[in-house]
Every structure is written in structure tokens, then in C-alpha cells.
Amino acid sequence: MKSIYQGTMKELPEDARPYEKVLRLGAGALSDAELLAIFLRTGTKEKNCVCLAQDILNLTGDGLLGLHDQTPETLQSVPGVGPVKAVLLLALAEVARRMLQQKRKTKTVFNVPSDIAMHYMEDMRHLMEEHVLLLLLDGRNRLIKEVTLGIGSVNQAILQPRETLIHALRHGAVQMVLVHNHPSGDPSPSSEDIEITDRIRNVGEIVGIPLIDHIVIGDNQYISFREARLLEPDIIGT
After folding, report:
1. Which pLDDT tens digit goes with each residue over 19-61?
2. pTM for this one?
3. What are phi and psi of 187, to 5 degrees?
4. Which of 238, 212, 3 is nearest to 116 (CA)?
């Protein structure tokens, strides 16, 4: 079988060619570098495509997961990666993210704060701006709708209780959860976070759609207003 891989100083051995390896053993048998090599297809005069893929993984510092944090410029700093390969890698990372996002939204149930935090951690901890999400849940903690309330900072201009409740009423929500990220990586709530949360909680109680939590996402860590007992009076478990 002729390899589809070119641009190498020395052809890869038959049992090391990623394309042929998938046909023989399945995609699950490939290493991360071998998987990337399939998309790269070519290496350089000095390095085969698998070695080039490993250089890219070394650049990210976080393996495949780190691809999503790269820019075309940083990827092109790797010898052998030009604009076409850089765009391909970024598109591949985005396809993987969207596939995971769609899968997670199917019959999603949030029973405890950590469920919510882990669900959104990888999407939100890499963001460079604050993204504010409103999760609308039914009475069994199942996700009905996810609404982006704003991008920027958590402030009164973005988080108007009236607009938040319009979304909740429109979609027949029984309870609400706020989720937003801190680009600094520190999830500690600010005084403004606490003030806005309290305003939305108060209005939610009036119309019978309680705000049951506010999750602040940091870098691989989170703070739940529910767990920290920052929702007062404590409406959880009533």
C-alpha cells in the first residue's frame, strides 16, 4: 500500500503510517501525534508528518486540548506549518469542540453544582472575555435552553433581571442558573457579581422561577454561589 504522506526525508515504515494504521487497527489505536498527522498529510524535508505533529503538540503545552488556544500566527511558528495547515488545525479544534458541545446538550441534567462547572469548564476557561450564560431548567434539573446574556463584563447593562425573566418565561423554565467565566482564572466572585446575582434572585422569587445557583468558572476551578451560601435567603432544597 502506497502511503499518502509526502515531504519526508525518509518514508515512514509501513506499520507506522497513520493512514494505513487506521485501516488495520482503527482510529482508536493512533497516538495524538498520529491522529494530527493524518490531517497534516505532509511533513518537511527534515521531519515526517508524525514528527511535525508532535512539534505542534509540544507547542500547545496541553496536547490536543491546547490547539483551541492557538492563533494562526503561533501555529505558523512551528517550522513546516504554513497558513493552510494552521487554518486546518484551528478548524479541526473547533469541529471537536462543537461535537462535544452538541453531545453534552442532549438530555443534559444538572443535579449538583459540579455537574454544571464540569460541563462548561473546557469551553469557558480559555475565553479572553467574560461570557454570561443563563441556563433554563425544568423541575428535574434538565436543561431546557442555554441563553447567552452577554459578552464583556458582568454588569447591570448586560444582566437586566427583566430580560433574564423574559427568557425564562418564554421557554417555560422552572428554575434558573447563571454561569460566567473570569478570564483571570480566579473564580472568586466580585462585589458586582454578588449584587447582580441578588437582584436576579429577588425578581425570580417574585415570579416563582428561582435562581438556584450562579457558577463562576476560573482556570480548572469554580465557585458555586449555592455551595458558598451566597444565595440568601437559601432557596436551595426548598
Report:
1. 888 888 888 888 999 999 998 988 888 888 899 999 999 998 8
2. 0.57
3. -85, 5
4. 212
Give the C-alpha separation, 124 to 60, whole Å.
Answer: 18
Enclosing H/E stretch for 20: helix 18-25
Neighbouring CB atoms inside 10 A of 9's CB total 11
Neighbours of 24 (CB within 10 A): 11
Rounded (5°) CA angle 64-67-68: 120
Cα 114–Cα 115–Cα 117 angle in degrees, nearest 5: 60
Q: Which three cell numbers stand for residue 175?
A: 428554575
Q: What is the DSSP string of 140-184?
A: TSBEEEEEEEEEE---TTT--HHHHHHHHHHTT-SEEEEEEE-TT
Torsion of CA 95, 96, 98, 102, to 10 degrees: 130
Beta bridge partners of 151: 131
Largest CA distance in the chain: 72
**The Cα angle at residue 161 between residues 159 and 167, in degrees rounded to 5:** 90
CB 221 within 8 A of CB 184: no
